[in-house]
């Protein structure tokens, strides 16, 4: 009888409960040898060190301690880390790759609810739902106000910044809608953009032509402040700006100034800083809708992440290619 690989959970208790319901724990236990109820939250405890001595697969997630050189010393048999969440930047030290450990992320599963949230905000934002609902609450007679002609998603031009994993899901969903789609991404060719249902343009052109601008680029040193005062000035009156990527991509001060004039609106699931301090002017603008970084998997959606991670464990044990493998060279370019 072939022995099963030894695995252990390394994540926060809440993430463990949400991502791994009992049927999924049973499935995982049929693939590897694991204590389904035990989670490592600190790699330095005697109990954790005892487990690390034999572990071959770590199933990580939100709340996972950083996996660094000391952890690798304590886990000489470690061969894979399967992350039941999105980005691995916060908990994977580059030395993990130097040891030849395989890393997988459930970012693809986490991307789906973000894309769904983005499309929903496009529909609602283009209908000016957020500002009109506030106005209606303050003054019921506002229901009789004329609606601007440029209201609604139909026949609008949508600009997508970044053909990232989430950006591509958004592009895929836009193809079924009556919109013109622009894409700005320096790593995508015109034929590839056409295959995604979009016209490839430079970022300035996208800002100038779009009725809706949706941000899906990674947070890198070169993308910090990507949407600055100059590019906000290029955007047409009435534009809706949506950010579900990272707050650092938009110059917050410049955005406040442009939105305060009423010439543009914004839906922000991420901000810079995050969280925004109490009393921040973005909270007071009726044409700005701020949500607390909730577009990714939450509640019932979190089990998708656990399902992805368990499927990756199964693929790894069977020796077939992983769907969420994160190579070391990808780290600088992912969220």
TrEMBL record:
Membrane-spanning segments: none
This protein's UniProt keywords: NAD, Oxidoreductase
Superkingdom of the source species: Bacteria
Domain annotation D-isomer specific 2-hydroxyacid dehydrogenase NAD-binding: ranges: 122-295
InterPro entries tied to this protein: D-isomer_2-hydroxyacid_DH (IPR050223), D-isomer_DH_CS (IPR029753), D-isomer_DH_NAD-bd (IPR006140), NAD(P)-bd_dom_sf (IPR036291)
PROSITE patterns (alphabetical): D_2_HYDROXYACID_DH_2, D_2_HYDROXYACID_DH_3
SUPFAM superfamilies assigned to the protein according to its UniProt record, in alphabetical order: Formate/glycerate dehydrogenase catalytic domain-like (SSF52283), NAD(P)-binding Rossmann-fold domains (SSF51735)
Name listed for the protein in its UniProt record: Hydroxyacid dehydrogenase
Organism (species): Kineosporia mesophila
């Amino acid at each position: 009888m072939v022995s099963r690989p030894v695995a252990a959970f390394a994540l926060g208790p809440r993430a463990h409960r949400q991502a791994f319901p009992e049927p999924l724990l049973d499935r995982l236990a049929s693939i590897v040898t694991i204590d389904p109820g035990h989670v490592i939250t600190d790699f330095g405890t005697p109990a954790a060190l005892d487990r690390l001595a034999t572990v071959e697969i770590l199933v990580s997630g939100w709340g996972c301690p950083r996996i660094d050189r000391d952890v690798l010393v304590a886990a000489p048999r470690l061969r894979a880390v399967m992350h039941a969440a999105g980005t691995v930047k916060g908990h994977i030290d580059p030395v993990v790759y130097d040891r030849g450990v395989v890393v997988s992320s459930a970012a693809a599963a986490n991307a789906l609810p973000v894309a769904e949230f983005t499309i929903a905000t496009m529909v609602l934002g283009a209908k000016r739902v957020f500002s009109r609902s506030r106005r209606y609450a303050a003054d019921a007679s506002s229901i009789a106000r004329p609606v601007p002609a440029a209201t609604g998603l139909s026949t609008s031009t949508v600009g997508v910044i970044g053909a990232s994993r989430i950006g591509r899901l958004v592009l895929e969903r836009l193809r079924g809608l009556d919109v013109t789609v622009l894409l700005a991404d320096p790593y995508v060719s015109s034929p590839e953009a056409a295959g995604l249902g979009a016209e490839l343009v430079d970022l300035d052109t996208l800002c100038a032509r779009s009725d809706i601008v949706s941000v899906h680029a990674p947070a890198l040193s070169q993308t910090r402040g990507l949407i600055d005062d100059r590019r906000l000035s290029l955007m047409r009156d009435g534009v809706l700006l949506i950010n579900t990527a990272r707050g650092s991509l938009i110059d917050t001060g410049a955005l406040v100034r442009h939105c305060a004039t009423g010439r543009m609106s914004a839906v922000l699931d991420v901000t810079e800083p995050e969280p925004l301090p109490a009393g921040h002017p973005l909270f007071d603008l009726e044409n700005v809708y701020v949500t607390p970084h909730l577009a990714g998997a939450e509640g019932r959606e979190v089990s998708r992440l656990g399902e992805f991670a368990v499927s990756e464990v199964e693929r790894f044990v069977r020796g077939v290619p992983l769907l969420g493998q994160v190579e070391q060279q990808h780290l600088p370019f992912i969220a």
